C-alpha cells in the first residue's frame, strides 16, 4: 500500500515483491550462500490503513506467499509469536536486528547486525508520543538502535523456555531532527495486538501450510 501522486491509497502488485530467506550477508560476493526466494500472491491490508495519513498503529500488511518457505537452509531460525496480549514487557531486555544504516548517512549494512535494547514502560511511551495507542505500540531505548533501512525488523525477547519471541515490529524513532543515534526512543508495533487480526484473516491451517519445517 502506497500513497499515489493523486493522494489516494494504492495497493502494490504482489508480483512486484519478493523476499530472500537464509541470507546473513547481502553483498554480491555472498550470492553463492544457500538461500531461497519467496514470492507473494497477495497483500492484505487492514481496513483502517491510509498511507496518505500514516500512523504507526496501521503501518502493516500481511504478505501471502505463493510458494512454501523452506526453513532448513542457510541462516534460518524460527521465532515464536506472543501467545497472549498481557505479556509484561516493561523494562525487559530485547534484541533488534536489521541491515539498516549503522549511523545516519552511513549507507546500508551488508551484514545483518543486532543490538540490545530495553523495552520501556507504557507511561514513557505515552509521554513521548501522546497520540499513540500504548496497547498497540512499544518503545525501547539502547546505546545502539535502529536506523534508516531497519523498518519492519523484529523486536525479540527470550521467554522462560529460552525461545525467541517476536513482540514488536520496528517503525520509527522520536526526535533528533529525523536522524538516528544512541539513546533514541524507538517505536514498534506491538505484535500481540495484530496477531488476532491475522488469525481471523486466515485459516490457521493455511498459515501453517506456507511453512515447510520438516
Describe the structure.
The two termini are 34 Å apart. The strands form four sheets. A six-stranded antiparallel barrel has the order 7-8-9-12-11-10. With 214 residues, the protein is mostly beta strands. The model has no long low-confidence stretch (mean pLDDT 78). The protein has three helices and 13 strands. The longest helix has 10 residues, at 192-201. The chain is 11% helix and 30% strand. It folds into two domains: 10-76 and 195-212, Thrombin, subunit H; 92-192, Beta Barrel (Thrombin, subunit H).
Please outline the major beta sheet.
Answer: 6 strands, antiparallel, barrel
- CATH class of the largest domain, anyone? Mainly Beta
Task: Assess the beta-strand content as a share of residues.
Answer: 25-35%
The average pLDDT value, as a whole number, equals 78
**Helical segment count:** 3
Distance between the termini: 34 Å
**Anisotropy-based shape:** globular
CATH topology title of the largest domain:
Thrombin, subunit H
Radius of gyration: 18 Å
By DSSP, the count of extended strands is 13
Low-confidence stretches: none
GO molecular function, one term: serine-type endopeptidase activity
GO biological process, one term: proteolysis
Protein name: Enteropeptidase
Keywords: Disulfide bond
Note the topology.
Blueprint: E1 2-3, E2 9-10, E3 18-21, E4 36-44, E5 62-65, E6 69-70, E7 93-98, E8 113-119, H1 122-128, E9 137-141, E10 154-158, E11 164-174, E12 185-190, H2 192-201, H3 204-209, E13 211-212
Parallel strand pairs: 6-13
Antiparallel strand pairs: 1-2, 3-4, 4-5, 7-8, 7-10, 8-9, 9-12, 10-11, 11-12
Amino acid at each position: 500500500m502506497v500513497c499515489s501522486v493523486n493522494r489516494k491509497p494504492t495497493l502494490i502488485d504482489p508480483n512486484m515483491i519478493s523476499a530472500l530467506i537464509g541470507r546473513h550477508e547481502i553483498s554480491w560476493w555472498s550470492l553463492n550462500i544457500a538461500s531461497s526466494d519467496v514470492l507473494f500472491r497477495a497483500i492484505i491490508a487492514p481496513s483502517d490503513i491510509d498511507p496518505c495519513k500514516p500512523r504507526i498503529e496501521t503501518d502493516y500488511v500481511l504478505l501471502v506467499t505463493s510458494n512454501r518457505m523452506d526453513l532448513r537452509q542457510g541462516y534460518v531460525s524460527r521465532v515464536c509469536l506472543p501467545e497472549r496480549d498481557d505479556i509484561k514487557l516493561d523494562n525487559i531486555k530485547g534484541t533488534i536486528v536489521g541491515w539498516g544504516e549503522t549511523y545516519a548517512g552511513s549507507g546500508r549494512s551488508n551484514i545483518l547486525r543486532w543490538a540490545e535494547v530495553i523495552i520501556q514502560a507504557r507511561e514513557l511511551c505515552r509521554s513521548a508520543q501522546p497520540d499513540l495507542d500504548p496497547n498497540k505500540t512499544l518503545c525501547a531505548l539502547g546505546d545502539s538502535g535502529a536506523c534508516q533501512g531497519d523498518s519492519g525488523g523484529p523486536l525479540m525477547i527470550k521467554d522462560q523456555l529460552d525461545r525467541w519471541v517476536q513482540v514488536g515490529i520496528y517503525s520509527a524513532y522520536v526526535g533528533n531532527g529525523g536522524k538516528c543515534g544512541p539513546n533514541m526512543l524507538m517505536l514498534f508495533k506491538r505484535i500481540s495486538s495484530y496477531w488476532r487480526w491475522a488469525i481471523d484473516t486466515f485459516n490457521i491451517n493455511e498459515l501453517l501450510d506456507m511453512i515447510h519445517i520438516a
